[in-house]
Amino acid sequence: MATGKVVDAAGKGVPDVRVQCKTCQTSAALALTDEDGNFKLPYHFEPQGDINQMIIVVSKGKQSSKHIIQPSSTVGLKLELK
What we know:
With about 80 residues, this protein is mostly beta strands.
């Protein structure tokens, strides 16, 4: 499970942000942030050929950011929504 917080440019937690793993094999690899911007994202990731990184997309309204994450460092993530 990936855990962390989605923040704005000022470092403040952003609520109701969609957090999704685009390279995970689990279709349920989707979560919404709570009122403080925290999330818990269940996922199943297995490397595919040369791809050994997770692509996590955070989005809310017209804002969206893509983050490339190492599967070994998915606890305590801090992802910025741009």
